[in-house]
Design a protein that fits this description.
The protein is about 35% helix and about 15% strand. By secondary structure, it is an alpha/beta fold. The protein has a single domain, classed as 3-Layer(aba) Sandwich (Arginase, Chain A). An eight-stranded parallel β-sheet has the order 4-1-5-10-9-6-7-8, with helices on both faces. A two-stranded antiparallel sheet has the order 2-3. α8 runs parallel beside α9. Bound molecules: N-{4-[(3-aminopropyl)amino]butyl}acetamide and zinc ion. The site of N-{4-[(3-aminopropyl)amino]butyl}acetamide (Q9C) has 18 residues, from β2. GO terms for molecular function: histone deacetylase activity; hydrolase activity; metal ion binding.
Amino acid sequence: MKSVYSERHKGHAGNVELVAGAIVPAFEMPSRAEFIRARIDGVGLGPVLSPQAHTLDAALRVHKPDFIDFLGRAYPMWKAAGREGTAMPFTWPTRGLRGDRPPESIEALLGYYSFDAGATLVEGSWDAIKSSYEVALTAAGLVKGGEKSAFALCRPPGHHAGSGFMGGYCFINNAAVAAQWFLDNGARKVAILDVDYHHGNGTQEIFYERDDVLVLNLHGDPANEYPFFLGFADEKGAGKGEGFNVNYPMPAGTTFEVWGAALDDACAKAAAYRPDVLLVSLGVDTFEKDPISAFKLKTEHYPLIGARIAKLGLPTLFVMEGGYAVAEIAVNAVGVLTGFED
Ligand code: Q9C
Ligand code: ZN
């Protein structure tokens, strides 16, 4: 399997986040992608290609123009306001406040274009975000060009980013961009299987009223887990999208036996949908030792996930999302890919 990777992700570094009332180094750090990059060579998965340059046109097919424009302007504005270090949101236009029009100051803009404090920017973030987007589109091009599968080693990840907001380490929704790109380039239907531990709220929001993208999401129950405000089982799509969004919330402590049954059900739904392309939002934060998650999957299970997905026999694009127990995420993420190929 061919992979696509860019060193430009490394500029998105030194970010901090809020955990239990304290500012700590962000779990979403450059070493994540570096470990995976090394593991690809370690197991001989296949060639690793650099992304081709892309304009932002494909991003604008799923994101609002003012949001994409903001992502490019945010850190320069932060610096122009005399700040340095991590740009982090801290005020949000929730119920009872004015969320109907973009504000002016960088502090207000950060909150207006986010749903949490978890997507933070430093000097090199925007270039890294664009590189992650180009990685996804280049890998999508490989699948469109006839490859049975491809791996987009995206960093930063994307599935929490919605049409007009960032959050949860995510800025541009790489998987959603790729799905729309396939549709704009000849595909009639695309299925997205999101196996990241966290609900892919951004992906769900983007395609919620659409019947040309089936979104299947396996994740920690939002009743007790981030992102808390989306991802419940009764969210099934709306309008002509009704029935084309499926959530599988599962409790803390879920083992592979239970998780794998949900995967089987999701795969059956994907098969019945008969998509032209399958996109896998590949988070491996389901791992038992993940520092911010609560499922109990073991390293031996990841190749089984890949093998199960391969049985669908669909052109498949894997897009990297979360996974934070740095060294082991590489074994697990690449384990899915080798399991797919075996
Ligand atoms: N710091 C992905 O896996 N963390 N994003 C909330 C408080 C947010 C995870 C806990 C986790 C976001 C792509
Ligand atoms: Zn996650």
